[in-house]
Design brief:
Helices cover 21% and strands 29% of the residues. It is an alpha+beta fold. Strands 5, 6, 7, 8, 9 and 10 form a 6-stranded mixed beta sheet that branches.
Amino acid sequence: MSKRAKVNGGRLEFLPPQIPTRVERPPEDEGWVHEANLDGYRTQIIIDNGGVRLYSKNGRDWTTKYWPIALAVDLPCRTAILDGEVIGPGEQGASDCLALEAAIWNEPSRLVFVSFDILHLDGLDLGSLPLLQRKQALWQLVEPGLGKIQYSEHFEGSALALFRTVEKIGLNGIISKRVDSRYRSGLSNTWLKAKEFEEAVRVGGVVNEPGTAPMGLIAAHAASSPI
């Protein structure tokens, strides 16, 4: 269902997120882009005249738990709603649920927000725009690279090649999205999640080698892959 960001007393309200449908294999036809599936906590950042707030996928205010990310938000905008995931790199560099929980409760300075969509910007509802237009607006707002607020790269071409690449570096499958899709709250068939390998022994998330941006590392592996 399509929903627009609501404003209450000059403050933006939480917008229920779009949820990908689980599939056995990612789509290989044209008209899709693909992203690494980050094994973190789905999070929405809201920026307005009341400051910065972070919400869980169920609309709970987790700003206090994610306070280092809230303090790090310094984007060139007056108002915005960003969709993404909070991750926490573990000892081996990959984000997993245990490392994320440990970071939240014991070392929140290790938390990182990786954004893959933008729903509102400076009074404009972007949810009705096609995905790639939203991605362009997000890319201009969030600089790719190191930092607590990062941009999630997307990839065109073979979904299977990217799937094998993220499997090799320990990530948890991929999300495929229609390039012309509008943002729709709830379960969506224009966002598809493929997680075929052993979830019980995998730790997914962002691999963060020293001096290397997490999403940039994925791009480097994808570019060098012979598949």
